[in-house]
């Protein structure tokens, strides 16, 4: 992966802090940065969800540093922003159902942790702070495609936490002139996304089940749609956001997606073909807090960040499935 370079800047003498870098998207950002010779890549992760194997992959690289610690502790955030040029803030507790079950834990990591990191980055003179938001902020808005300026009412504590992050980022941009960019990810999938645990996402769950010849659950009738986005596109958006010089690009949020939607049923059938499995899904009730349809308008990210998704869903599923079959970590 990452044969295509998304930046033209010299990153050899630059330092990056990736929070949540032992997780799925964070470890993919780390892989890209190290592949292109970033001067320093520090990861701050408490390993609550992240995996040690995603640290071991990179630990032999002298430009890589792993710190086990929590963003809920301000002193930890401040210490780890020292000597850092750019922050890529990915650490959070994902999952809508988890947030419904335990809103306090979600708030602590996603809101308190976020504010700690943003403040620490400001106080340390970090050049730019790029952070993970979520398409869940569109909540009950029925508008399709989703445009950044039109959001509805959040449908879960998770969505509230990401919306609060966006409000804080906006205030920091206006009050302290912090260079901050938010990325509203739409259902990201790819290598290193976990298939296990109670809050796993649909694609790794389906792949895992099909490989084991088990019937996975589909929530609702399966006709709900999503703008599934391969992780390489999300990494590209982060890299573009770090270095964009377009006037007015900072202090905003952007949709990160492919701008194509498929239903869960179609996704499942595509995976069945890919895996050669004859297993059928088991349908169960709709999930609380889920949105019905999701599709992004990505024109703002294209205009301000120069983002152009390069990997479509089918190709992304193929790459992900090949990784899943072996699940062998690759050294960078
Ligand atoms: N995967 C998606 O489809 C998706 C969609 C929208 C938004 N997001 C957001 O993108 C970011 C990355 O998501 P992901 O899918 O890679 O999830 P992930 O769970 O794989 O990664 C998140 C990482 O953050 C770490 N973390 C959690 N709480 C922490 C804390 N208090 N201190 C330090 N580290 C902590 C976890 O250990 C984990 O490694 C998150 O902010 C998530 O909300 C993801």
Explain the overall architecture.
The chain is an alpha/beta fold. It has a domain at about 15-190 and about 230-260 and about 290-310: Rossmann fold (3-Layer(aba) Sandwich), CATH 3.40.50.720. The protein is built from eleven helices and 13 strands. It has helices at about 25-35, 55, 75-80, 95-100, 105-125, 155-175, 200-210, 230-245, 265-275, 300-305, 315-325, and strands spanning about 15-20, 40-45, 65-70, 85-90, 130-135, 180-185, 190, 215-220, 225, 230, 250-255, 260-265, 280-285. The strands form four sheets. The chain has a seven-stranded parallel sheet with strand order 3-2-1-4-5-6-11, with helices on both faces. The chain has a two-stranded parallel sheet with strand order 7-10. Strands 8-13 form a two-stranded parallel ribbon. Helix 6 links the parallel strand 5 (about 130-135) and strand 6. The N and C termini lie close together (about 10 Å). The model has no long low-confidence stretch (mean pLDDT about 95). Bound molecules: nicotinamide-adenine-dinucleotide.
Entry keywords:
Rossmann fold; binds nicotinamide-adenine-dinucleotide; alpha/beta; 7-stranded parallel sheet; single chain; 13 strands
């Amino acid at each position: 992966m990452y044969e295509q370079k998304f930046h033209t800047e010299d990153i050899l003498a630059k330092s990056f802090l990736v929070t949540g870098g032992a997780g799925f998207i964070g470890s993919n950002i780390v892989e890209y940065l190290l592949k292109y010779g970033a001067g320093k890549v520090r990861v701050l992760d408490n390993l609550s969800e992240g995996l040690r194997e995603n640290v071991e992959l990179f630990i032999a690289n002298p430009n890589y540093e792993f710190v086990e610690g929590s963003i809920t502790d301000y002193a930890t955030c401040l210490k780890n922003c020292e000597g850092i040029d750019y922050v890529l803030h990915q650490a959070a507790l994902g999952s809508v159902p988890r947030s419904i079950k335990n809103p306090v834990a979600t708030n602590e990591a996603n809101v308190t942790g976020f504010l700690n990191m943003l403040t620490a980055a400001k106080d340390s003179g970090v050049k730019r702070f790029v952070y993970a938001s979520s398409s869940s902020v569109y909540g009950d808005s029925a508008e399709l495609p989703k445009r950044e300026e039109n959001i509805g009412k959040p449908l879960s504590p998770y969505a509230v936490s990401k919306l609060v992050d966006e409000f804080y980022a906006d205030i920091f941009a206006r009050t302290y002139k912090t260079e901050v960019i938010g990325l509203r990810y739409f259902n990201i999938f790819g290598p290193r996304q976990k298939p296990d645990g109670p809050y796993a996402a649909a694609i790794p769950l389906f792949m895992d089940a099909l490989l084991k010849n088990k019937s996975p659950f589909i929530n609702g009738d399966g006709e709900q749609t999503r703008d599934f986005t391969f992780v390489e596109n999300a990494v590209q958006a982060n890299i573009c956001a770090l270095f964009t010089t377009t006037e007015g690009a900072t202090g905003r949020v952007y949709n990160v997606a492919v701008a194509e939607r498929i239903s869960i049923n179609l996704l499942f059938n595509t995976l069945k073909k890919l895996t050669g499995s004859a297993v059928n899904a088991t349908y169960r009730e709709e999930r609380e807090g889920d949105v019905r349809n999701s599709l992004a308008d990505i024109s703002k990210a294209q205009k301000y960040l120069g983002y152009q998704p390069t990997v479509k869903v089918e190709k992304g599923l193929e790459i992900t499935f090949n990784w899943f079959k072996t699940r062998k970590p690759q050294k960078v």
